[in-house]
Amino acid sequence: MAKVNLTIDGQSVDVEEGTNLIEAARQIGVEVPHYCYHPGLKIDGNCRMCLVDIEKSPKPQIACNTKVAPGMVVHTQTDKVKKMRASVMEFLLINHPLDCPTCDQAGECRLQDYYMKYDRIPSRFEETKVHKDKMIDLGSSVMLDQERCIACTRCIRFCRDVAGQDELALANRGDHVTITTFPGKKLSNPYAGNVVDICPVGALTSDEFRFKKRVWYLKRTPSVCTGCSRGCNIEVHHEGNKIYRLIPRYNPNVNQYWMCDEGRHGYHFVNDNRVLRAQIIKNGAMQEVSFAEAAAYLASQLKTMNSSEIATISHAGETNEVLKAFDEFSKNVLKTDLRYYSRNEVKNPSSDTILRTADKNPNQAYINDLKLKPVSEIKNAQAALVLNGLSEADFEILKKKNIPILAIFAANVGDALPHASVVCPIPTFAEQDGHLTNVNAVVQKISQAFAPRGESRLVGEWLDAITLALGMSAKKAEAVSVF
Amino acid sequence: MTDNKDNLVLTTRFGLEKSYTADVYQKTGGYKSIDKLFSMKPDDVIEEVKKSGLRGRGGAGFAAGLKWSFIPKNVDKPKYLCVNADESEPGTFKDRYLLEDDPHQLIEGIIICCYAIGAESAYVYIRGEFDLAYRRIEEAVQEAYQKGYLGKNLFGKNYKLDVTVHRGAGAYICGEETALLSSLEGNKGQPRIKPPFPAVVGLFGCPTIINNVETISALPYILNNGADAYKKFGTEKSPGTKLFSVSGHVNKPGVYELPLGYPMKDLINKVCGGMKDGKALKAVIPGGTSMPILTAKDCETVTLDYESMTAHQTMLGSGGVIVMNEDVDMVWVLRNLSRFYAHESCGQCTPCREGTGWIDKMLVRILREGGEEKDIALLNELSDNMMGKTICVLADSLSMPVISFIKKFPDDFRRHLKNRPQAVRVGI
Lengths: 483, 428
What we know:
The complex is a heterodimer of chains A (483) and B (428). Chain A is of the alpha/beta class and 483 residues long.
């Protein structure tokens, strides 16, 4: 696309034709403050925070709706512009409650940030504030505090233009204006949680996150959603080995700025219902043992069998590294050709043309690359080594064919666990580095947010220990070594 | 109305019995322009309107013909005309008379405009509270359909035009052209950012012309008599006639058609019969309440045209003239305006949403409890912070009166300040 040359705050800059002034300024490190503008939404131009001065223009112009033009001379730091910003801040704050100590947006609120940066004058408002309703359950786990709302309409535009469901609207007029759903209706689109992310103030908060954790305590780790094969880029927000929320991370090729609610709320398996210690069957009952003891026990069991008659069942929810390591263990250590996979199967899976895919497994693509077969094709096997759970149907197949589960590598308690001779705790996606290959064959990195829970060990570590216990030499398994 | 019928363009049928019917309209020369219209090329019609110097009578005064020429050619989309009949500016009530007394003149104007811009659909967006006006224009449209003046092959010509009358739901802002479009499309009435301008992206995303009732109603005269005849009225830069709706302390308030350039003092003293009860003139709002105010002294020299108003730092606006006598307290007047604009702000842009409410509350406090000097300074500053910084000009519509009221009538404000012996205490 053609480049346009203009001047912003005295700096000459070449930007693509059609770029707006906020983005053009951003390219040279100049911040034009804004509330209603969001690069993923249609422009509305209502907050007036991004007013700038353009030479030869009779009136100040909003940077969000002004496209670059050749020879344009823009000023974003003049006294006039600073006064306009301060006045917008003053207007925004007159009816806004001063409830930062109890507001969940504290720490990531643009009213706070911009007040300190662009205003910092004491309020001159001596009148009575407009009081609006608090704690309105909009639906889809989204709570609305109307009095904090600055009517930027990002949420309205998101529902209408991105989620495709026109569920929110502005009601009333003047300083009594409020965001609301239509009478008798609830916010119910499958992407509703995004309105919380894009709300620049504390008006829309997540019922799941409110009052659980102050945001400045949270650590933020880039990762990829494992809810379906789309692989939306996310940030894992965690503290003390616990996930408090997932939020989408911008990736223009995969998910833009968004993620679905299924993915957003699908992290609880990391926090809850975990297998924390290795277990083996001893004297007819499951007993917790150490990592070394479990590995040695599993190796001793394998030695009693013809390992080439052992089926290995991978899982479409694991990383490329884990799947590769497990497959190499199958081929090189067990020397078995009985290599299969299982996957999460959901009845009536949700899907749409926005982000959600019907395949609720994050890594079917890599399973396909490894040319593994589905468990439905399993032939006679002496026993099975299962990686990260079995679908209900696959579990039934094993039971029907009388194939015992020798060991299961699992992060969470599941139906198959009591049927395994050895249970090997492994980390979830949040506790390890690795890669996932999405439905469009995009390979994406996940990063370890915190250490594995309990005595969980990386699958590679388990396989190395078992290999050594079998009397063979093992290369040190490291996630990054695969790619 | 003036007594001199020679000076009339728009109101010739006012006062005639059943002036709103097609029969009376036709008997008095109505729909005469149609044959001439279809003998012309659309571009020639636009040129004739340009030549007439007709400026939009809704308030902004933008040249009508020029606006029409912004409609893009060779666009594979329908084009629309929206007639702005959402007359809601306080003190302005002239379009209502045109709708009630001569709706067919408007329909003829609609046919002219639609032919010129290539539209096959027109909408009349009418203020919901205008009950009689709504019934009259609706009946006139139905009558026009029955007589074959609208619809397919209107007047036997190879041209199709549909007109829909749409009632507003009671929002002043829907008189703003882009808010009107939003409302017409079924959305909340809120102005849209420009660009894109409606002439390019308007109703349903298609090229659209929005003109007000008075502007469109002037077209039959221009087409029948030619641009030069129209230009004989008014001044060189403000040609034509204009309706002025006069209210307040005059002996004969009402709607008057006058050539542009007519002296304000003559409007008050001659046309409107002078000040009521012989009181002295104190102030005049010249063109609807969103304009800067004029003092009695200003009214000695100002004339009713765009240029003179600009020279007196105000605007002709919609021609809603509000006359106030010496007894009027300008702070009370301003509070009455602030209540209106705070209530009618659509709530979209921050400075308007918050600023109009803040100004209103301050004025109430000043009137209830007495104000301080700093309040006056703050009123000025807030107005400055609002003016020219929003999507539409509703914020300016309160800012301009605030600034001009304080500037031109400082004593009225001082009387309401605390610690002044002559301070006025009045409950609200």
